[in-house]
Design goal:
The chain is an alpha/beta fold. The protein is built from 15 helices and 12 strands.
Length: 399
């Protein structure tokens, strides 16, 4: 059976497994070692470019995780990193040089915005930020020295959806590299490579790991690009620990079933919030009121586990609502089996100045939910309770 004929659920569980009969461990072994022994110096030279040389270069446990993700994305190769930000920064530094230019969406993760706008200029690399769905702006921003189109879909935290076919076509037309942060989409809900996107990045900390117990990043795509990125990762030392890779492999085995449940729960939560009097707006790709609903249904198999909404009131109202939740735990990050809640202006976009946040559509009234795999009725009851607490009059201190 050819690799690409298997369904995503099968790839997640068996993506990197050799399915011929063998006598060996069913679970992936942890190669918890920094270095590997060789018999002679000739073998040492041959091992240098393998995963049996030195773990900064590669490791067999890491290889299993990388091959599984490459199979899920339907691409040549994947490479893992110590964090999602490590994956992004290493990739950009590997592929661009001083004097190059990037075109990026305005509404992306705050940490990436900071890297593009504050760190890369020190290296002589400029970035033009454009509106997510205004593709004419993307085209007009391209310069002779532009090398990369960087997008995120669905976006964090506004959950806008990017037309991947249009972005990939624009990149091909101008001979640019296209790169997407597909963390919110997951390899279960969308496959950017099918539309021609060159590189797909994930913060594996989130859905790929799925249990809020590891930090990692991954980039998947064309073999030639991954080889260049790998050489830079060796130099920067931003490699993943084998034990973390083993945890990632274990998490990937349940990715498909977790995401299916999170899709179902998130849609129910979004539908509930869209009917609530204390909610001003709800952002979820599979809500019919979403501005890119038709596009989302076309290029996504599910709406994902993230729901963002704005309360009717002030930033303080949003804080009270988030602090009144019990099943939705007040914590940063996302993608785990447990439901989380956060205020973007205090977490993911706290490092972005208010004027820029306003352009991105990130408000003080905005609450971001990472919907887990709990019972949807219980999650809705928790939200209903939290929103009632906001509506209740504030007690007046005595004395």
């Amino acid at each position: 059976m050819k690799r690409n004929t298997r369904h995503p659920e099968t790839k997640a569980v068996r993506g990197a497994a050799h399915l011929d009969k063998k006598n060996g461990p069913l679970a992936t072994p942890i190669y918890q070692t920094s270095t590997f022994e060789v018999t002679d110096n000739d073998e040492q030279l041959r091992a240098t470019h393998t995963d049996h040389f030195y773990t900064r270069y590669g490791n067999p446990t890491n290889t299993v995780a990388e091959q599984t993700i490459a199979a899920l994305e339907g691409v040549d190769r994947a490479i893992t990193f110590a964090s999602g930000m490590g994956a992004i920064t290493t990739t950009i530094m590997a592929l661009l040089k001083s004097g190059d230019h990037i075109v990026a969406q305005r509404d992306i993760y705050g940490g990436v915005t900071k890297f593009l706008s504050q760190w890369l200029p020190k290296m002589g690399i400029e970035t033009s930020f454009v509106d997510t769905s205004e593709y004419d702006q993307h085209a007009r921003a391209i310069r002779p020295n532009t090398k990369l189109l960087y997008v995120e879909s669905p976006t964090n935290p506004t959950l806008r959806v990017v037309d991947l076919k249009t972005i990939a076509g624009l990149a091909r037309e101008h001979k640019l590299i296209s790169m997407i942060d597909g963390t919110f989409g997951t390899p279960i809900n969308q496959h950017p490579a099918e539309y021609g996107i060159d590189l797909v990045m994930h913060s594996g900390t989130k859905y790929l790991g799925g249990h809020t117990d590891l930090i990692c990043g991954v980039v998947a795509g064309r073999a030639d690009l991954i080889e260049t990125i790998h050489a830079t990762r060796i130099t920067l030392g931003n490699c993943m620990d084998p034990h973390a890779s083993w945890m990632l492999v274990r998490g990937l085995k349940t990715l498909a079933v977790r995401v299916a449940r999170q899709n179902e729960n998130a849609l129910r939560v979004a539908e509930f919030l869209s009917q609530h009097a204390k909610v001003r707006s709800v952002h979820y790709p599979f809500l019919k009121t979403h501005p890119q609903y038709a596009l989302a249904r076309q290029q996504m198999q599910g709406g994902g586990g993230m729901v963002t909404f704005e309360v009717e009131g002030t930033g303080e109202d949003a804080r009270r609502a988030s602090e009144s939740m019990r099943l939705f735990t007040l914590a940063p990050s996302l993608g785990g089996v447990e439901s989380l809640v956060s205020i973007p202006v205090l977490t993911s976009h706290a490092m972005i100045e208010p004027g820029q946040r306003k352009k991105m559509g990130v408000t003080e009234q905005m609450i971001r939910l990472s919907v887990g795999i709990e019972n949807a009725d219980d999650l809705i009851a928790d939200l209903e309770h939290a929103l009632e607490a906001v509506a209740a009059p504030q007690s007046v201190p005595v004395g």
